[in-house]
């Protein structure tokens, strides 16, 4: 369950072999409880986000360093066996199943060692667990998990080998990953060799007693030695272990990092451009990033991560974190460490909306209120929490302290998680509490904290023992990082990772709701210019779209794409045709007829300008607004447009969709029979005169035509010029249009006057089309007879085609009604000529008049009407005007739609529950 994809049931829970689990709870409750337990499990042991807790059991762990049996809890998951003592922080153990070589029973008569199980690792180390009440079941479960691990590893290695073979032929694969940059460049202020060797010696002693690698015993002694700082040479080994990045790296396909780098460099993206702007701002004081070696390595790491996780891409501050990682780790290790920071340790920090950082602002505010109430009141007045937390947390203090000091913060952060940055922030605020209470404004307070943090020194570096220098100014030492970290643990070490997560959850709901409200306001503001709906109606429509998306996400992908911040807000919400059809039939008055499905398909295609199969929210508002709230002329114009090719194809006319309602078809039979009889009496071949482009067939013509129709029908183009540029309509398309119009009125109360009005207007338009045909034929014949060799050059003022008398809308009177006028051929002929479907002329078409090669004269004139004629005739019918002038109340319509949806959802059959599935009861 997450913000993007919604809730999906964990079907594996139904198949899981388990004991001692009550059956009374519903499957949904079991599923949600299992997710919560898995989240706490991952947080406790710093495991990947994909890890799911399989089960737990009480047990004791034999600790060889003090020869004791420690009571605690044994945890099992797909890839790990973990142990945590009952006494907090006494001992913790993480054993990856990929490292397990053997699991066996141990029968012993010693007190405390009964029901024992011995796990032997591939490095020859072993761990003894005793007092396992369900030892047989636990061992069988571990064997089952081990068998899956071996299968997965075999599949992963074979697929990785094939990927590596193909990557060897990649021309872009001409770079070499860099080792830790500390091996290539000297530190400006290196730690004295004596101090460094002493620290390494202490760590070696610790490894000898408590073990080394990921399976070491993690005790309070480990926390103490981390607090003193990890030696430079061991950070490459310990950072991935503590953070969980080593697990991600070991479970990934070999060669994945190289593949991601090559992919990232083979395409351009916004993230790549942003990375380039920030490369030279990353730790510029270090020699490694004054060289192309360091810059290129940083570029590859950042681009590879943006390619791996496009939902995050690149965010400012990632470059600073990655640059410090590259100093102590190889490129690939830095890449996986960066992934662990962004995805597990500081989730949702590094995205366009920095949701995680905003959430932690609220957490820090609560902690300050609890531990420093007097200072909290002052900071609240100054609005300081928001300003300090972003810069401190996003870079893990790397941007506000000298990196020689801040790197010790990173040591503790990887070991203890995000709680470290809250402990440190509280300690900094407490140390400056008296001075902050005296500050008069936020500027003075920010400068105070800035000077304090710049004065934080590392006691291990001799140059920092006296003073620091910045732009030839002396910076007074404020405190050593060792003392600051010690104070943070001694005063605020009671903070726990689980407590921080609970506070995050509480504030996340508030932050996400606030961001969503802001996004909604921006989206509504961006589409309000249409004028179709009020602000409240648009808000309600947007809420409905999001509700419908959530209902459909159970079986379909999310429809909220990862939008670049520079794109319009309405692009954040898109609907596919399935959802659009549901909204069209439920909200639009045009959706109540039996042709609603075909109308929805044509309207969707008309509005989908980029042909990506989705409508953004602006296009959706335009589609619904033009059918339910636009002015009368606009709606009639849209109806006309939806029955033009290529939106209405000749195949739809030849094989019309069968009416689902037999009664509708029966009532309409006589009406449309009379139409077709009149057409045949006028000598028109119904099926052979469909409007189609003779000289430009294919998808490109259709795409251009739809795009042109879109631009002509938009309400932003209301001029008479656009109206007269609309293509003429041939008779088959007009017959289809009139059938649709009749079908729309079938949903209205029966009225003889309405049907009579529709029939009379339809007859009038048929006659107008016949007049157009005859007039155009006579004018064309006259032009041909006057054509002679002396008229080789056609003057601009002489139109190639002359239109028949044309019915157009006249000026509106004081009541807003349009009059119907006749225009002469001189005033409208050229526009009519542009609207006719015709092949482009060539010189050969007109250069030999004696041989009668003027091809335009060869094709007989076709029956057609113009948009102006359609509008002028339709406006004479009072029922038509009344229907298309009616404006819906969108809020009430949406409320009725929601009620129907509720009834529909309630009528669905229930999902199968856990009780109906075969499972061993736990």
Automatic annotation (TrEMBL):
| Keywords for this protein | Calcium, GTPase activation, Repeat
What PROSITE patterns would the database entry show?
EF_HAND_1, EF_HAND_2, TBC_RABGAP
User: What start-end ranges are recorded for coiled-coil regions in this protein?
Assistant: none
Residue limits of the EF-hand domain?
Answer: 595-630
Ranges where the record places region Disordered: 786-862
Q: Where is the composition biased (Low complexity)?
A: 816-831
**Where do the Rab-GAP TBC domain residues begin and end?**
229-417
The name this protein carries in UniProt is Rab-GAP TBC domain-containing protein
Query: Which organism's genome codes for this protein?
Result: Cloeon dipterum
